[in-house]
Amino acid sequence: MFIQNQMHTHINVLQSYFMQSAQIIKDCPAPNYTEIAMLGRSNVGKSSIINLLLNHKLAKSSSIPGKTKLINFFSTTWELSANKKDSIIHDAVELDEIAMHNKEESSCTKSMRIPLVFIDFPGFGYAKVSKDTKKIWDKHLTDFIYKRQSIKLFCHLIDSRHTDLAIDAEIERFLKAITESRQDCKLLQIYTKDDKLNKSDYHKLKAQNKITISTLKKTPQAIQQLYHAILYASLNW
Ligand SMILES: Nc1nc2c(ncn2[C@@H]2O[C@H](COP(=O)(O)OP(=O)(O)O)[C@@H](O)[C@H]2O)c(=O)[nH]1
Ligand SMILES: [Mg+2]
Q1: Which of 69, 122, 164, 207 has its CA 20 to 30 A from that of 201?
Q2: CB neighbour list of residue 202: distance below 8 Å, 6 or more residues apart
Q3: Ligand 1 mean position to 49 CA, how many Å?
Q4: How far is Cα of residue 65 from the mean position of the Cα atoms in its chain?
């Protein structure tokens, strides 16, 4: 455990860029970093969330599956900082960099930089692609997901308003089969478009400790909660 009190840490996005698209595994970048795969049906808000996580509009909203490449890679560097008074960062030897700032007399802040790669699957769960496209796509994707050991976290995005869709049950089964067969990766559900919920439904999800987010009406607190949930799960802290 690196951080003793995550309430007093802050995550800042330092820089992000689009790496590349891939149709097949051999086109993928070297698996050198912690990777986070974003999955969910089309229109659930994947690209919008990826842009929020990158703090940059790099993922295109409303892609056309079949015409788009299958897998898109985005690189980002997050900075986790903690106030020394409140929390302790230690044992960070395997992380790329540990920076020590002591700019202000009253607060000595430690921080660490963490490189992450987000992976978008633009065509996932899109019903209107032709059978042939879907067959090829399914094979490539299943291959990729099973073989890519650098994926440490699967984020399953679910529309807050429609939590019982058959496609989500299918995605969940698929991802659970992977995460249960591998010790080193996790599954995190993220409920999107929470601005569209009425108060009662919103509180119901929150009472179940669900992670919810709106990319339209986001608060700094909601963004930090999302960043922390993703970072901690992906690094297995
Ligand atoms: N109200 C609302 N609309 C959203 C939110 N996130 C995305 N959208 C809209 O939902 C549509 C699909 O979003 P997109 O990110 O392209 O979904 P994707 O197909 O899963 O990548 C777009 O019109 C977005 O503007 C949100 O948090 N709240
Ligand atoms: Mg998209």
Answers
A1: 122
A2: 160, 194, 212
A3: 8
A4: 21
Q: What single-letter amino acid sits at 49? A: I
SS3 152: strand
Q: From the CA of 48, give the closest atom in ligand 1.
A: 15
| Cβ–Cβ < 8 Å for 117, 153 | no
Whole-structure pTM value? 0.85
- What is the residue whose two structure tokens read 């820089």? 15
Residue identified by tokens 């249960």 is 180
> What backbone torsions phi and psi does residue 223 show, to the nearest 5 degrees?
-65, -45
Query: For residue 15, is pLDDT > 90?
Result: yes
Sign of CA dihedral 160, 162, 167, 172: positive
Under the banding of pLDDT at 50, 70 and 90, the label for residue 91 is very low
How far, in Å, from the CA of 77 to the mean position of ligand 2?
21
Q: How many CB atoms lie within 10 A of CB 181?
A: 9
Torsion sign, CA atoms 220, 226, 231, 237: positive
Token pair belonging to 38: 């974003």
Please state at what angle helix 46-54 crosses helix 220-234, rounded to 10 degrees: 90
* CA nearest ligand 1 atom 6, residue: 45
Calpha distance 176→185 (Å, rounded): 10
Among 48, 49, 54, 53, CA closest to 15: 54
Instruction: State the pLDDT at residue 29.
Output: 95
> What ligand has the least distance to the C-alpha of 46?
1
